[in-house]
Amino acid sequence: MNPSTMSLDSAMKLASEAFLPYSCVTCTNAGEEGFKLAIMSIDGEKVLQKAHLSRDEYSNPVRFFDAIEQTRHHLEDKGRHLNPWKMPFILDDTGIPEMPPNY
């Protein structure tokens, strides 16, 4: 794997953490190389659904960050308050994100 790409599993994990305090449910799209996500409130109400993040979107960290940020902005425009979130660095070729050092 190229260090500048992300695996499907890593992208789904990052997406599930990007919308706190809401929960984000991710699942793969049958027969396609991508996934969809649904943002849920604490009481189980579906707040927003993104039907498809393609392989081109999730495997490129810059495009993935842009897609997540657009979705976050859409939620905030609807009056939903989200915890701060930053895209972690990907330092190795396994695609496992690591947090930047705290100096």
List the helices and strands and how they pair.
Elements: H1 8-17, E1 23-28, E2 34-40, E3 46-54, H2 55-59, H3 61-77
Antiparallel strand pairs: 1-2, 2-3
Strand percentage lies at: 15-25%
- Flag low-confidence runs: none
Strand order of the largest sheet: 1-2-3
Number of strands: 3
| Count of DSSP H/I helices | 3
| Shape label | globular
Biggest sheet, open or closed, and with what strands and sense?
3 strands, antiparallel
Order of helices and strands: HEEEHH
Radius of gyration: 14 Å
Query: Kindly, what is the distance between the CA atoms of the first and last residues, rounded to a whole number of angstroms?
Result: 30 Å
- Which structural class do you get from the secondary structure elements? alpha+beta
User: What is the average of the pLDDT values?
Assistant: 83
Approximate helicity band = 25-40%
Please give the oligomerization state of what you see.
single chain
What does it look like?
The protein has 103 residues and is of the alpha+beta class. It contains three helices and three strands; from the N terminus they run αβββαα. The longest helix has 17 residues. The termini are far apart. The model has no long low-confidence stretch (mean pLDDT 83).
